[in-house]
DNA sequence: GTACTCACG
DNA sequence: ACGTACGTGAGTACA
């Protein structure tokens, strides 16, 4: 309700507003017809309870509301609409009730919400003419004949919407119809019409919305009043409206910090742009505005250049390619300050402009200062630093279906304010960066990495659609077969994809024992189904179905949708999202392409080199996280294992099972030791390890004790890290990437434990991320320096994927591992494994 | 929009 | 007694 009001006000920017309510159950209509709305369900009591609060909120918002005894809201609206129309207002009626569309007229538009409030259908006289061939007022004549079920008046027997429309089109009105009713051919309908003439006229009156309700207020009383932010804030507090509260507090802050004016110069044409040609010194603030998240394809909206405290804006994006501006952006001497450098590089490249010399990225810096601040919105981010110059994009453009561009002035002001925000916040953020000891992390890792990632995204990777399409055919067939089998065994058809329906079949109809519950019902996840496998053959079929359905929907069909016209997939790496410093990949995610199971792994056949002279080449770090742990903890035993190049899991097995030689380690011991190693990296707990290995907690605890006894400095490191988190409020990677852990002090066991595990895991996962990021930067530079044609295409956390011309293979097989292993100097060696082939599948 | 499930490191 | 292994993204169902 509140949300809808906000969007309406935002969208229409009205001068006058009235919200009308129904007063009560009895109106002049019930006097005319006792059963009027007789079948209508009682207003739900919870809505009734809310009404006084809604009215209070309207008061605070400065909106007039009204209800009137004996009349419906419709009549108030109808009367006011006509009154406003006669005084040359543009009227918009917003309602969920189609009946009101009869009010549509010149200068009166009726917007009916459909499907909740997300979609609106606008009714105008033209629309009526086009769609129905009648006027809005003739809707009343139709209703007179067909009646209205929801308002419970009958109309003429046997006449429904279709017939009513035909009759109204033919005769024009009910009155005219009855003037000519005798001339009609003999029919049952004619009889009904004649017999029920009185009913028809009664219904006509019932359907007619009053436009002469005696209102005790004037049009001027509906003028929008300034809203009372203070009262609204306390109202939201009282009502526990958290989401609106935040917005209101922010808005009122905007009010209080009466925004400083901003002026800008509009660049209208090339001549205007050319006037910027004497710029030889930076910094230049540059804001490139796109409409949509995916900058590989989003529309260009405009740009702003901030130069010497002046702001130059334009929505003519071509002006970026005029020599004056292009020179500024491509100059390696003039420094540029931006928000989201990677987005800016890719966007400009689409215009043939190569961005160089960026030395400040507000998004990147604030992410490093605190990775929880991963807002991709300049305004919101600035507001969190108490800079109230720029609004958020949602405040300016709106959200969801309502998202749209403001007028040109609004847009230019927004862009200029964004540029000014980047400019004014810079010294503050850079100062904090230095205080955090993160200058190197920004200058030498994240900022150069953004350029490397941009190139990878722009190049993309070739994906053979035909390979996926062939898979799709086979998978569909398999799905069909399994589906039939499952329905047979279940004795009925149901939606296998619905956990709810599946749960009912398995645990209620087939009476299998429910192993685990979720918040909403039975769990049907893999581990549950695995334990039920032996109880009923249907379970295996469901597991098979799940596996294939996943491949089909997410990978085959999902990937097909993302192939561009150049036959390539251009993912976007999110560089400022994860809490640990890893990248993530979206649209599509190329970091979770199946590999563990053969069926899914086949997807990788579709990822191929650009041409037959090249191969896909892949190198991955072996056990980076454990090596990082060995380094950071300085544990001699663990370091020894890596220095001697032992199999780390077997080595751990020997330690925790007290064996004296590697030969004594059997497969099961190694498997368990591997799980313990993983657990350590995740921030071990007996509970988690027990669950993973399906052993008792006690036994898990024994493993852990044994592990820490054998790797004592690992234990020490874990304890120290938690202590540090408690003392400083954050933990750090080797390169000083930070993660804050406020929950470390929580009295809530669950939250505190989580924070403790995070404290142990983040420095390890994050340092591994630092390392591969350095490797990527060095790798790109090496390729460039050596003028190789090899392209770096993808990163999957501990793995880099390249496209390599065969004549460069020999060099690359040496170069990549060399660069990756030397990215950083640890107390233990880094090890890299490589492979290549004619597709990503073969590069294993 | 949230819950569930499952793909990856 | 408490009760979760760490970090992600996407498809589907359902309110």
From TrEMBL:
GO terms for molecular function: 3'-5' exonuclease activity; 5'-3' exonuclease activity; DNA binding; DNA-directed DNA polymerase activity. Residues 264-434 form the 3'-5' exonuclease domain. SUPFAM superfamilies: 5' to 3' exonuclease, C-terminal subdomain, DNA/RNA polymerases, PIN domain-like, Ribonuclease H-like. Residues 600-808 form the DNA-directed DNA polymerase family A palm domain. It catalyses: DNA(n) + a 2'-deoxyribonucleoside 5'-triphosphate = DNA(n+1) + diphosphate. Residues 1-225 form the 5'-3' exonuclease domain. This is DNA polymerase I. It comes from Holzapfeliella floricola DSM 23037 = JCM 16512. It holds the Pfam family 5_3_exonuc.
